[in-house]
Amino acid sequence: MRELTVVGRPNSGKTMFTLNFASYIGSKTVDVTFRTYDDLITCRHFSIEEAKRELCSNAMHKTKSLQSIVLKIVLGKTVVNFKLTDTCGIGEKIHQEEKIRRGMAQTLSLMRCADFIFHIIDLSYISKEYTANPNTIDHEIYNYGIVRNSYAILANKIDVPFAKDNLTKLSNIFPKATIIPISALLSQGLKEVKTCVARNV
Amino acid sequence: MSYVCPQDIFLAVENGEISPAQAFKSLREMDNITAYPTKVDNRQKRIEEILYELDHLIGLSEVKRLVREIYAFIEIQRRRAQEKLNIEPLVLHMIFKGNPGTGKTTVARILGKVLREIGVLQRGHLIEVERADLVGEYIGHTAQKTREQLKKAYGGILFIDEAYSLARGGEKDFGKESIDVLVKAMEDHKDELILILAGYQKEMENFLQTNPGLRSRFPIHIDFPDYNQQELLHIAEQLCAKRQYTLSLETQALLLKLLLQQSSNIENFGNARTVRNIIEKAIRQQAVRLMAKNNITRQELILIEPVDLKEVKE
Ligand SMILES: Nc1nc2c(ncn2[C@@H]2O[C@H](COP(=O)(O)OP(=O)(O)O)[C@@H](O)[C@H]2O)c(=O)[nH]1
Ligand SMILES: [Mg+2]
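Structure tokens for the assembled complex are given below, as produced in the milestone run.
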């Protein structure tokens, strides 16, 4: 089974995307497998709504470990299973909390093994400073992902004001990547993501 | 700072020595060195997956470090060879010392896989034997039996558990004959066999002391310490989680107590196998307990209660 992973800055909407995408392709409930850095595995069953309530948050670093769900996608007459793994957000700096640093290390480690990387970027985050800085974590993820060929940027929060302008900026900053604009919150743009997933499972 | 393998980079992130952004830079540097055909990438990916498996064994930090060291050593020798620099001979026969159930076989198996991926061993499989598989009953029988096992192991690892039993019974014992055959095979099949001798710490040391010729042929020694209570509990939780069961807090406490009790009569306390047996028995006990009930909730199906451990106490 192929493993697709969702990475990005904290609060970019990774968890929201993971859950709403699961819902979009037909899951009413999800079995989330949590894997912490020391390989403690726990599994919990949620409805999508419950999962969003419990796992998404405005607070930074709600997700501290790997959270995987197994999903089905229908391709013509066949059904293919794949694993979608939500990860701990990564930033530029060394985080003071050990748990989060471990979560970040897990994210990096998974990025090396995953079959496909979805890199979520929050469009509301694109500021002047951001555009001027060639060393953001997003650049690092992009540079890392682009050589692997199984990589796409999901430009999230397209529903917020100015998002459309920022989308143009984003495609100038990351010219070589496939960029799919989405709203994880409102489940917009997920059809394109599904097409992308279908090609990569 | 330069790193030998990606795991070192991840560890540095964990320890707060470098930021994720720096980690990406180091990872890219590392990939550039090996950035020729994609085949290399696949190979490296597979090695990482295997090392990931190793990293997630509980405890064994010393063992993990050593395996990584061996891996780094081989890789670097290879790169030196590419640059036509002198290389150290690669002798990878090993001694594993520790009580039963401390992870010796598991680690040997993982090592085999790593060595296959880096091309040191053709197959990297593990043939696990003990005295009875090697030693025969009449003259000539032993050599034949030992050779048979060796033949199966070529391209991989021959793992001899309680190896000192080969030296039991003194000069006239056939065990001696087996050792001779093994030593000869180590020379004649240098490039297609790794021998691991395993067993209790004390016995292994005695064995090597009385066979100094052997000691020099086994340059790598790895100690497998007993698990401590925390690690054993952790193992129990992992075993349960894999099967989608959970231990209640009371059950955890009782489990520890049971392990402690057993440790007074069995000499090795830190035994993962004991934990596995207890958990497997408890799962069956839970099933029996639940069958007697009318309505069973999801939660009850998952939870292992203290009563489920009752039967385990012997
Ligand atoms: N407006 C808007 N908000 C979003 C969108 N996606 C996520 N959010 C919000 O962003 C915050 C962080 O989301 P979360 O999924 O927990 O981010 P994560 O840290 O990347 O997993 C939450 O408050 C979400 O409600 C989106 O598409 N549009
Ligand atoms: Mg999250």
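Chain B is about 55% helix and 10% strand. Residues 34-39 of chain B have pLDDT under 50 and may be disordered. Further analysis is deferred to the final report.
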